[in-house]
Design goal:
The protein has six helices and no strands. The chain is mostly helical. It has a domain of about 110 residues. Helix 3 packs across helix 5 and helix 4 runs antiparallel to helix 5. The longest helix is centred in the last third of the chain and has 31 residues. Keywords: Membrane, Transmembrane, Transmembrane helix. It comes from Marivita lacus. InterPro entries: Metal_resist. This is Periplasmic heavy metal sensor.
Length: about 160
């Protein structure tokens, strides 16, 4: 009787087919992602219209890093480091899990978190204003030019 076993596919051919399949899946994923999100000019970044990020993104990389360090130092000085956010959320979880549910405690917790956020925003404005005040006239003019450039880009995107 004749040997009816199928010859084994060479390794190079299996690797080539696998690579081709992976590349096809990658391309299809990119196309679907482009179609779903509307492309790079239509990204749904939530803070594109946020004034604070609009101003900070126009800073040079060096100024932005310095601003972040100064802001974090201010938070630490006031005892509100990164852990305060987690602590606030855990407190909210405790209120949500309490039986019976205390609506007023929940509202109070949320109001306190809003107040702290407003305090952080004010602190951010002050740190940013200090950073800008320390700029030379030429640096400040270049900063204003970058803001104007970002504003023009934003206006163009909004017209589309």
């Amino acid at each position: 009787m004749a040997d009816m076993t199928k010859p084994k596919t060479p390794l190079w051919m299996r690797l080539t087919l696998f690579g081709s399949l992976a590349l096809n899946v990658l391309v299809i994923g990119a196309v679907v992602g482009f179609l779903v999100t509307g492309g790079p000019g239509k990204r749904p970044d939530r803070d594109r219209l946020d004034f604070g990020s609009f101003y900070t993104r126009a800073l040079s990389d060096t100024d932005r890093r310095a601003l972040r360090r100064e802001f974090m130092a201010e938070l630490q000085q006031e005892g509100r480091g990164r852990g305060a956010f987690v602590t606030d959320l855990r407190l909210t979880l405790d209120v949500l899990r309490a039986t019976p549910f205390d609506r007023d405690a929940f509202v109070s917790t949320m109001a306190e978190q809003s107040r702290r956020r407003a305090d952080r925003e004010e602190m951010g404005r002050q740190v940013l204003a200090n950073r800008i005040a320390a700029m030379s006239d030429a640096e400040r003019a270049a900063y204003a030019d970058r803001i104007e450039e970002r504003l023009s880009e934003l206006a163009d995107r909004m017209r589309r």
